[in-house]
Amino acid sequence: MRFSQLILCTLFLANSAASRQHAAHHSLLFNQMPIQSSEVQESSSNDLPLSTREHWMRIASSANHAISPCPFAPFGTAIVNHTLSFSDPTHLGELICLGVNDNGHSGNPTLHGEMVGIGNCTSILTDPEGLYKLSASETKEAWRSFSLYTTAEPCPMCAGAIAWAGMQEVVYGTSIEKLIDLGWSQIEIGSQEVFERAGRQGRKTEVIGDVLGHEMDKWFEWQFMRGECPEGCERRGEKCLPKGHS
Q1: Is residue 30 part of a domain?
Q2: Nearest-CA neighbor of 66 among 22, 117, 27, 127?
Q3: N or C: which end of the chain has fewer CB atoms below 10 A?
Q4: Is the separation of the CB atoms in 67 and 101 below 8 Å?
Q5: Percent of the chain scored above 90 by pLDDT?
């Protein structure tokens, strides 16, 4: 197991424990409640409180801290099951897994935060010794109940993968347009367009943008625009490094 994956696993377990304080039966969710139909989910997905959206966006952002307090590519992801949330808005939902951008460390250009999250969730859901023990067919069906939170809008590659998974919704902080304004290289196709074109599959992923947008924007401002370093970091030339880093 890579060191970054080990730290992410630790953070995942800590956040899962925190989430379980708000719901008593997370570990049995798939056995207790059948996956809702897409009609029910789509009619309910805007009913969740903003505080719930913000909670999970901050969890997605905190995944980056497992790698560094000043990550250069702070694209963090949290994949959440809101099945119980739609029937009880006070229920935060269940964290399935986290993901962070790993292409800089691995050399694999496809390992954006969302793609890493999808891979991590697949491993967790199908682990025969794990919490869910789902078969491959059950896992494919489970994706339809999930919401993906990401610090920045998914690129076309990630949006395509999310569409193929049939996820219920994507919630993001910083938009692709804002990333471009801040100097980040991006393919200029918004996630909404990808999901609309993928709608012929019979299911359209809903997009909810600009959740904590101003807060997430700050994570992407220092790399090319010489904005302020994240909290706990200080500028050393072109880089932001942890304070006290020699």
Answers
A1: no
A2: 117
A3: C
A4: no
A5: 68
Cβ atoms of residues 144 and 138 within 8 Å: no
* Alpha carbons 1 and 114: distance in angstroms, whole number: 19
Q: How many CB atoms lie within 10 A of CB 92?
A: 25
Residue at 88: amino acid letter = D
What DSSP character marks residue 102?
-
Does some domain include residue 40?
no
Residue 37 belongs to some domain of the structure = no
**Predicted confidence (pLDDT) per residue in 62-89, tens digit:** 999 888 899 999 999 999 999 999 889 8
From 122, 132, 175, select the one nearest 152 (Cα to Cα): 175
Into how many domains does the chain fold? 1
**Contact at 8 Å (CB) between 71 and 63?**
no
DSSP of 162-222, one letter per residue?
HHHHT-SEEEEEE-HHHHHHTT----S--HHHHHHHGGGGS---EEE--TTHHHHHGGGSH
Name the residue range of residue 190's domain.
3-22+49-242
Other residues' Cβ atoms within 10 Å of the Cβ of residue 146: 26
Look at residue 235 and tell me if it is in a domain.
yes
At 39, the pLDDT band (50, 70, 90 cuts) reads very low
The label of the residue with tokens 């101003």 reads 214
CATH code of the domain in which 72 resides: 3.40.140.10
List, for residues 158-191, the tens digit of each pLDDT value.
999 999 999 999 999 999 999 999 999 999 999 9
CA distance 187 to 159: 12
Residue entry with tokens 């490094």: 241
Q: What is the pLDDT of residues 145-155, one digit of tens each?
A: 999 999 999 99
Angle at 153 between CA 12 and CA 20, to 5 degrees: 25
> Which pLDDT does position 86 carry in this prediction?
86
